[in-house]
């Protein structure tokens, strides 16, 4: 049992999670980072949900409409069959902009027989902190709270409103709908209008998906992952979220519960790099504008993360009235990590800037802004690369000289040199090459540990860390270099557990890690593939794909023993790394090898 058996729907403004039984158990309106209106995932009693209930005689199946973000839950009992088609509207309108209202549509499609269901409609506004009251009005059902903060939502439906609110059994004889939204509608919806919304949204997603290239292998996995990454992008500013949820624990009952509804420069830049590879350049252009807007002053250091509307303060608080996912407290809102210093973000951002300029050089706006950012990043890296930091995993205790951070400082200078060549700014290159060489020498002198025969987590350490596997993919070292091969082997021997990887095994601020970090397993698989162990890599990859939920979605972590999904969901990190692996395999491996690896 994965226990994170949810589908995600969304429209690049907000999102909702729907259980495999057709219950909306998480949604925040009007935007991703707003307070929740349904949060049963974080408290089964208090959190609130919107459920379609049938008797136990019904079989329930769930799938996405192919190449779209429309989720179809089918309820069948013999000849009595109906579907719930869940989506959040998104489509282009006449003026060229996108219509993406803060609303969820549940289109109830009658198939056959006389199916019956009940509705459990129980919104709990403002993270269920106060009392939410529901009232039946002439044209809609409204729910409101006015404790610490006033908030209200609206439900429109083709069904009898009293039956919906009271949970009375409804017999379905024709198509119907629910439209749940943050705003009162100016024009009353009808079944016909809702059907048109569904068709328009379907066409949008089909058109979007056609831009994703077709590969020799794993096309369905690549497409579903790319749609998921798109669902985690915020159209208004270009921000990309790490995940759609808060406080889903890395380990059940543990305190490693964080709010991921923000834009980490690292995560987002990695997503953008992959999306650009897939040809979705508009997402990349919006993200670069997001970055440009964040850096008004030439000497302003980047934070590691920002709010999706470019907020710089992300104060962390706990919601003590909520029990947490499976009793895992605390539930956190905000994220104190925004104050941390992590030197790797400059290299990751410079890598994206270089990639965009290299790939779309004839179609890049704001070139002068990007050159200004490039010079600023070099200045900051040159000044600070020798300093310790918190690292990619955001250790909250003392700073260290993390190998990954140093490598990404090298990447920052390396890509800046390449950008300078694109812009023909050759007067900078000689000076920057000296910085690049100095950083590279420092890493080889201090990060390599002969006693463990590997590059280690930090200078002077004997601990291994999966993040150093990215040395090769960022171009710091060749895949066939003896030191890289030795590092991959050492990480396999130390951090690999039944094909799943620990990030690291040393104690951190909260004790010893006890679950597998999904992106690390993908990094490891990629590294095996690069050093020539292709069949082993394929075997691990297909095994890992089998740990996704029923819709092919991944969270942040996987439990080593039970293989259940853990951590925030769906996780951008996991899906971007899945795509990278799948593309690498598809470029070189034959279908016969894939079939052999699955036997």
TrEMBL record:
Q: Which Gene3D superfamilies match?
A: 1.50.10.10
Q: Which InterPro entries match?
A: 6-hairpin_glycosidase_sf (IPR008928), 6hp_glycosidase-like_sf (IPR012341), GH15-like (IPR011613), Trehalase-like_N (IPR045582)
Return one Gene Ontology term, BP aspect. carbohydrate metabolic process
* Domain (GH15-like): residue spans on this chain: 220-582
Q: In this protein, which residues make up the domain named Trehalase-like N-terminal?
A: 8-139
Q: What are the protein's GO molecular function terms?
A: hydrolase activity, hydrolyzing O-glycosyl compounds
In terms of SUPFAM superfamilies, this protein maps to: Six-hairpin glycosidases
**Identification of the protein by name:** Glucoamylase (Glucan-1,4-alpha-glucosidase), GH15 family
From what organism does this protein derive?
Answer: Ulvibacter litoralis
